[in-house]
Amino acid sequence: MVKFSRELEAKLVPEWKDAFVDYRQLKKNIKKIKLSFLRSSLPSSSSSGAANADNGGPHISLFDPVRTLAAAAFSSSRHDQPPPTEEESLIELTLVQSTEDEVREFFENLEKELNKVNGFYTKKEREFCELFPVLNKQLQILLDLKQLLHEHNARRRSRQGFATPPSPGDASHSSLLGRSASFTDSVQSPSSDAEQECLMKEVIAAMERNGVRFIGSTWKEGKKVKEGRLRAAALRIDIPATTPTRAISLIWEDLANGIRREKGSVGGGDYVNRKKVQRAEKMIRDAFLQLHRGLGFLKSYSSLNMEAFQKILKKFEKVIKVADEVERIFIKHFAGSDRKKAMKFLRPKQPNESYTITFLVGLFTGTFLTLFTAYGILAHVTGIFSASSGGSGSYLETVYPIFSMFALISLHIFLYGCSIYAWTLTRISHNFIFDFNPSTALKHRDAFLVSAVLMTALAIALLLHLLLQAARVSKTLVDAVPGAFLLLLAGVLICPLNIFYRSTRFCFIRVMRNIVFSPLYRVLMVDFFMADQLTSQIPLLRHMESTACYFMAARLKMQPYETCTRSLQYKLMVYTISFLPYFWRAMQCLRRYFEEGYDSNHLWNAGKYVSAMVAAAARGKYAVDPTPRWLAIVVVTSTGATFYQLFWDFVMDWGLLDLRSENLFLRDQLILKNKCIYYFSIVLNFVLRLAWIESVMRFGTGQVQFRLLEFSLASLEVVRRGHWNFYRLENEHLNNAGKFRAVRAVPLPFSELLSDG
């Protein structure tokens, strides 16, 4: 039987954890009362040992203190018993007072928890109740705008000789947005002043019914402005500039509106057009979805706390020997006297999950291990990696970058699955933090399946390539294997069919687009989280450049193949690619600095990535000019960047190294119970951050050893990033929990609203 405390932790809203009833503390108070009752029963049992001996020995009852109090109350009617000694009376009085103190403490804590729960529930209920009429008013404005657009467009079509427009009742349908002309264009179209005046009256009347304040409007009932020219009242719709196209559109519209206002032309304000109304409809829809989600959380909060109070009172009643009374009351009043129904509510069973994915993970993992073992044996037999083999250099320089690139991707996906499993196990709301849809987001088994399938396909390609090379097949056909493998995976990534986690694939493509075109797009949590992952995949980006150079030079004959290995331009290109993840991440920090109220922390964060770019540039120069001077510069810049990154990892990203914390060098709130894990993680992250030393010391002499060391260091950096991911989201989750953020805030489009009162 699962304890209710664990059920409560499994079901509660993680961001509201501190607002839930402290069930464990109340249980501790119950245990104190129980121990106090046990202690208070010992003197009475010792004084009546002879009487109990006849019944088989002393019997300790939890109800003995109650009997003691009752006996004391009616002692005047019992003169046949000898009066207790002064010492016995003092002991009994002390124990009874101790029990009373424990009971008083329990009820004080119970009242405090009840007030906390009621206060939080009232606060959230008030917030949601205040938001609901605002959203209703926003929706009414949207419907009126769509109705006006439709009716005016229909009248214009009828004047121009078009077909009879559909009935106005269909105007509320969203498809009308696609057929309605721009409201601005409607106002600006050639028509008489009387028609424009009539249209403006309709717009103003409809908007003022919803409490809209018109920006810069000089309209008065029955009046016109000077020179006999009408000025259209304007409704401002706040649409966030989340994409470059939208940002350019807003800038252009602001410029056009400014010119109109300067000229005093008709409609010299901020106009409503079809695209704005469409975007406003989507924003209001998202706001309603978030409101519904928040109300669901509030309902769950209410039911869980009610059940917690029921459970804790039941335990208290059991302590004072009122057995099963609370359960009987609950069954009678809350489950319609249906015990089975009550047990389902009190001890709900988790739904059985399908283990098909688990089976497939095991199947593909076993297949990969078998194929990779066969590849290792065949590679040893053919001597492809031996120093004496003439083809080892060509194999490592051409095929190794392609296959190692996908091996690093597969390792990263596997570690992401491990992170998802750890986040789920510790109740960290990663889907809420990343704003993922829980119904389509990857679960840890899904990530493991993707990794296993990718590694199996990689092992098949490796084995097939080696078999064809050992069979002395033409080089063109042999080299087609990695190219075909690359094209196959690229095709799966962009496949429009709803197979193999399409929503996740498209989300990945969208996030990569946002990263590459930073800072043109608004930066979300998932965007800079993925950009941080790219900073740990710089070897992968270099392998991508090597692969592109290989196919263009060796296969397409666009340039000599030696260009990809020995030319100065190639080396500079490699280190230029190393700058890109840091550059993208720095641009994201600058975008957030301007968007989030000029928070200087974003500038310091950007400085961290700039220092990494400087260190990468120094190592690039040292690679082509290995002099003592550049070695010293590399050591200084890399050391500075490393300690900058370590400070940001521990203090800002993980929230650790708090000198005022009750947990030494950690933080006050820790999700993991074992503190040693945090200390070990700090040491591990520090050690893995020093991988750049290898580029200075130049370990390894042979080509095979160099490639193996390079792949090992790249894998260790991926492992460090996967390890970093857990603590980064743990800190983000604790920040959300500290502010009770469990619902995403959706900006509302119509900001110019005034109450009618």
TrEMBL record:
Domain of life: Eukaryota
Pfam families: EXS, SPX
SPX domain residues: 2-330
An example Gene Ontology CC term for this record: membrane
EXS domain mapped to chain residues: 565-757
Segments for region (Disordered): 156-177
Location relative to the cell: Membrane
Topology versus the membrane: Multi-pass membrane protein
Transmembrane region(s): 354-378, 398-426, 447-468, 480-499, 630-648, 677-697
Key words of the record: Membrane, Transmembrane, Transmembrane helix
Biological-process GO terms, alphabetical: cellular response to phosphate starvation
Family in the record: Belongs to the SYG1 (TC 2.A.94) family.
Entries under PANTHER family matching the protein: PHOSPHATE TRANSPORTER PHO1
Descriptive protein name: Phosphate transporter PHO1-2-like isoform X2
Species the sequence originates in: Canna indica
